[in-house]
Every structure is written in structure tokens, then in C-alpha cells.
Amino acid sequence: MKKPVIGLTPSLDSDHYTMQTRLHYPKALEAAGGIPLLLPPLSPDTVREASLICDGLLFTGGVDVHPSYYGEEMLAACGEVCPQRDEMELSLLRLALERDLPVLGICRGIQLINVGLGGTLWQDLPSQTGSTLCHSQRPPYEMTVHTVHVEESSALFSMLGVREYAVNSTHHQAVRGCAPSLQAAARSCDGIIEAVWRPQSRFLLGVQWHPEFRFEQDKGAAALFSALVRACGT
Length: 234
What we know:
GO cellular component, one term: cytosol
Number of helices: 7
Protein name: Gamma-glutamyl-gamma-aminobutyrate hydrolase family protein
CATH architecture: 3-Layer(aba) Sandwich
GO molecular function, one term: gamma-glutamyl-gamma-aminobutyrate hydrolase activity
Strand content: 15-25%
CATH superfamily: Class I glutamine amidotransferase (GATase) domain
GO biological process, one term: polyamine catabolic process
């Protein structure tokens, strides 16, 4: 059986001369039975052609999505942004929706998906919500720092099989207003949305935590990548 090709998006450094991604992402995809393909931010035509090679997409973590994409001015507490990456990933998301490609978003990825479908973000959790929950841990990132409550009606619950799930966490932004076509799949104890899914899609899931750091030791983390790869064959 042919292994599915999963396109994954890289980070760009500030001078845009290099692109990179943590090896945890492609290793997790490989372990799940997929073939990872790094997608550089090139011309729109090239991005479209590259997307046609892919059976699914993984939007990875990285810098903040520019607030202009969800109709807000940038606050002082907003972090580094990369409009070039935003444009490329939003284009890829539209292409994925056109073809109903399976999509998994991690950290920045869940935020990008939400914005691309019409939702909004908290630009900075500490200053805007006052939450004292540890959402931005220090290494090692394989360790868990808080739990999330998983909605039993969600696709995420069918993957994890538990209502309370321990996660790692390294973010200062999060989904604020859920996009109309998305549903919250998990929340932390302070009410922050930690996962979303799109019921009408073949597979579209976003999580705020980083399962790529834990796929070798946590069956739940591995299950997310396996579900993505499996959906590519349906």
C-alpha cells in the first residue's frame, strides 16, 4: 500500500534566508506511516502544485499569526510575526479545504486554522486573560504541565479515549473566538480552548499542545499522527 505524503510547513528565520523545522514533526509522521514533505514558501503557483502532491497537511508551530488577518491591531505583547509564512499557510489551508485534504495543526497551526476560517486569537494570554496556568513551559518539552478536558462528542475524544488528558504547553497565544465552522474539542481548566475540529471535514484537527515531543512515550500523542495518516487513505 502506498504511503501517504504529508506536507508540513517550516518556520522562516527573521532574514528569510533559511527555513527550518524540528525533526520531531517528520519523525512523528514517519512513525505513523506517512512520508513527510517540507513545503517552502515559494510562488502561489508553486505552492498550489506542491499541494497537489500531498495527501494531507501538517501546520507546525512557530511565530505568531499577524493580527491583521483577524481584524485587530498588533498589541505590544504580541510576539514576532512572519506575514510571508502567514500568506503561504493560509493559501495552503484554502487549497486543503477545496480538496478536503486531512489537516492537523499544532500550536501555531491551530491558531492559523482558526484565523483562516474566520476566528480570532488571544494575542497574549498573560496580559489579556490574567491566567496563571502554565501555558509556556521551559524545557524539557516532553514533560506535561497541565491537563485538558476533552469533549466526548469530538473527534479528538475518539482518538484519545479519555476525558482528561495531560499535555505539554509552550505558547502565549490561543484561540479566542472559534471560527463558525469549528468546534472546541478540548479546554484547559482556565477556559482556554486547547483543541478544535471541523465536523464537516474528512479530518481537520488543531491542538494547542505539542504531541510531536511525546509521540514515542505517549499513545495519545502518537494517535493524533496516526489518525492524520489514516485519514489520508480514506
